[in-house]
Design a protein that fits this description.
Mean pLDDT: 93
Helix content: 25-40%
Order of helices and strands: EHHHEEEEEEHEHEHEHEHHEHEHE
Strand content: 15-25%
Shape: elongated
Largest sheet: 10 strands, mixed
Structural class: alpha/beta
Strand order of the largest sheet: 3-4-5-6-9-10-11-12-13-14
Low-confidence stretches: 344-348
Number of helices: 11
Number of strands: 14
Bound molecules: S-adenosyl-L-homocysteine, iron/sulfur cluster
Radius of gyration: 21 Å
Distance between the termini: 29 Å
């Protein structure tokens, strides 16, 4: 029986070079092959016309260049597009394209479900099913770029879909390497890639050393009691440890960590919470994204009034923070933060 073929996206350039050299094939072929896949959007090795036929034959004996299969795409009134993908084992994930004035941002998933159990998050309700492979993470970007066509203005990637990216560190890192590879990968700027984490401190250190990407931290509370109640990971890595990691994150000068703060009525949205947040963070090193809670079934948190959100923001603005209110896009199609559950796939 032939060995099962591997998804070629899961190989880094280095691994592909090693595979080729075991077969006495020159290393420059790896770059050619990857160019066909990532710039050329090739679907088969046969298309790779500058590669000798016998090498193409060997590649197709051992590898596939799969696409994720699109189950549905939904368009929201504000222009967001939610893609529901099915993977080869039948599990489903979602990615959300968020159009902005000058560019598009793609929000991608890193796991099926999530093990972190944050109380406000719908993905947490699925539990943890499995990590995505590097190929499945890369596939979301490569395939959506392909669907958008050559004129696409996709420049930004955020790991804010389903899952905790730093709990799938090796595959996320591998995917990032291909995203930022500008000779034979997808050519994104590392400054335009943001990894959002609930606060896996050791992996945050690793990411800081291994890549140049931006870090976003889901903070959501200003004291350990509240944060532990909302996000169990806080028991292992409390706020002080988490912030110390952020302040020492090896950034290029002037770059900041983004802190995400979901505003939940009566939980963390008072003026005293805002004042405490302003004290806890450092305006020179932190940017704050305020996300009014997105309601979903089975969750009894509530979204605060708009006036409360604005008051909270003003306290931060007055203390020199860069602060945005993340007006939740895509709520009408459940594509907003914390609303991703790959509904149609939850029966897998
Ligand atoms: N696991 C990572 C990334 C995915 S969650 C993380 O937790 O950072 C992406 C963002 O959605 C996080 O900032 C999270 O706090 C936010 N989020 C989750 N549920 C939400 C909800 N119901 N309303 C608003 N934001 C939510
Ligand atoms: Fe997982 Fe992030 Fe949701 Fe927490 S907020 S359960 S870490 S996806």
């Amino acid at each position: 029986m032939l060995p099962t073929k591997r998804d070629i996206h899961t190989l880094s350039q280095k691994e592909l070079i090693a595979w080729l050299s075991q077969r006495d094939i020159a290393s420059f072929r790896a770059e050619q092959i990857r160019r066909w896949i990532y710039s050329g959007q090739a679907d088969s090795f046969d298309e790779m016309t500058n590669i000798k036929k016998d090498i193409r034959g060997l590649l197709s004996e051992h590898f596939t260049i799969p696409r994720l299969s699109v189950v549905t795409t939904e368009n929201s009134r504000d222009g967001c597009v939610k893609f529901l993908f099915e993977m080869s084992d039948g599990h489903r994930i979602e990615s959300v394209l968020i159009p902005e004035r000058t560019h598009d941002t793609l929000c991608i998933s890193s796991q099926v479900g999530c093990a972190q159990g944050c109380r406000f998050c719908l993905t947490a309700h699925m539990g943890f099913i499995r990590n995505l492979t590097a190929g499945e993470i890369i596939g979301q970007v490569r395939d959506i770029k392909n669907m958008l066509g050559k004129q696409n203005q996709l420049t930004n990637i955020v790991f804010m879909g389903m899952g905790e990216p730093l709990a799938n560190y090796e595959n996320v890192r591998k995917a990032i390497d291909t995203f930022v590879d500008d000779t034979a990968g997808l050519g994104f700027s590392p400054r335009k890639i943001t990894v959002s984490t609930s606060g896996l401190v050791p992996r945050m250190h690793d990411l800081g050393h291994d890549s140049q990407v931006q870090m976003a931290v889901s903070l959501n509370a200003v004291d350990n009691d509240t944060r532990t109640r909302l996000m169990p990971i806080n028991k292992t890595y409390p706020i002080e440890t988490l912030l110390e990691t952020c302040w020492t994150y090896p950034f290029a000068p002037r770059r900041k960590v983004t802190f995400e703060y979901i505003l939940m009525k009566g939980v963390n949205d008072s003026e005293s919470h805002a004042l405490k947040l302003a004290k806890l963070l450092k305006p020179a090193k932190a940017k704050v994204n305020l996300i009014p809670f997105n309601p979903h079934e089975g969750c009894d948190f509530e979204r605060p009034e708009e006036s409360t959100v604005l008051k909270f923001q003003k306290i931060l603005l007055d203390r020199n923070y860069t602060t945005n209110i993340r007006l939740s896009k895509g709520t009408d199609i459940s594509a907003a933060c914390g609303q991703l559950r790959a509904k149609a796939g939850s029966g897998v």
